[in-house]
Amino acid sequence: MFDSLSERLTGIFDGLTGRGALSEKDVDAALREIRVALLEADVALPAVKDFTTKVRERAVGEEVIRSVSPGQQVIKIVHDAIVELLGGDGDPEGLALAGEPPVAILMAGLQGSGKTTTTAKLAKRITERENKKVLVASLDTRRPAAMEQLAQMAEKAGVESLPIVAGQSAVEIAKRAMSAGRLQGYDVVILDTAGRTSIDEEMMSEAAKIADIARPRETLLVADALTGQDAVETAKRFHERLPLTGLALTRMDGDARGGAALSMRWVTGLPIKFLGVSEKVDGLDAFDAKRLAGRILGRGDIVSLVEKAAAEVDQDKAAKLAKKMAKGKFDLDDLADQLRQLQKMGGLGGLMGFLPGMNKQAKQQMAAAGMDDKMLKRQEAIISSMTREERTKPEILKASRKRRIAKGAGVEVPDVNKLLKMHRQMADMMKKMSKKGGKGGLPGMPGMPGGGMPPRGMPPGLDAAASDLLKGNAPAGANLPGLGGPAPSGLPGLGGGGLPGLPGGKKK
Predict the structure, then answer these.
(1) pLDDT tens-place string over residues 254-278
(2) Are both 66 and 107 inside the same structural domain?
(3) Are residues 33 and 109 in the same domain?
(4) Could you tell me if 299 and 305 are in contact, meaning their C-beta atoms sit under 8 angstroms apart?
């Protein structure tokens, strides 16, 4: 979503950091460009004025103008100002779930904003991360199949939904949901209210009655980030009639200009609590101003990347792999597991957004080189076309076998050779690690004892990079191979030989 804005800001900063000293005129010129970039990104005009005023006050001081690296100082100031615009550098505001169960969460929003999908995603997140028993209930009696949609989404998310009873009003369903929550021992009840094409008196009156019954601890407005400033206006009008406690922005993986996300907190004063980052049922991320600011400024988000990996790593498989790696063994079955792991974490496209230096141009270079999620599936298909013996002993693969495998996977023989070369490089790396007495770890994740990831922390070697990121500096060595730097060490397969098809390995 922020690709265009990030590219513009990166270009402006490149001009600043290339100078040995900065004058007040240089700062003013850069701020004019930043102002235009923010306005083009659809950030609200009052928010842009406030933002540029604060940056100028801090950037024209003697300390910045005469510092050793004034350009970097200005970038740090802009980073801090974006964090402030997004809600401040304090800890992210979580959900208020304390209190006598069942705690009610009311979901509000216009029709088509992704409210029902977000309800299921939120239920899944609370169930898994807060260890709570959650019930979801659809109060949308007007939209055709709205209740069935939530029931299906809840089943995908692995949470319970209130049984559908035909003919009941939204208020009656709310009473039944809260009663079921109390009688059946649910910790949280999430009420998905009806959406409208516009805010009207009937809708707000119905929402107020539901709020009186449920007495929600949280009332979240779900807004579509693709609608730009309309989303900001919607939030203001809802808050005037129905006191909101937070916002959830959907479709943050879209190609909108991102101004709504930057303006929401400043205009409404309400905290953004969640971001919808994909259509998948687990595609809901907690909002963190510091991390989002780092991504906007092209500094990536190493911390979120590590947390995502920690949540997705299969600890049992990782432990088995660690034992094999300690003996210097790494076969094609292990490689297939790594490819599947990458796909579970969001695929190449999903992960690239977390890496520093991955601007629009870099992503276009990757796409032109055929480096996408289809590549991962193609490589997995090649391995699946092999026999068990071939996967454990790739050295037996001669020309005739390669032709059979290529035909079975629907690829060419050179594609099979690329995969085997990449596996050989990774296997050699594992052998070197075992000879040095290392305890093993996932390929491309050096320093990971036991092959797993700490559930809430960061692996050694990434903590310093994340620290740099949160200070507004680009972490060292965090670009993709062939795109301006060495491979990052935090992803399976990106250390050592690189992923199949990725540049970085030695050419024959």
Answers:
(1) 655 667 777 888 888 888 899 888 8
(2) no
(3) no
(4) no
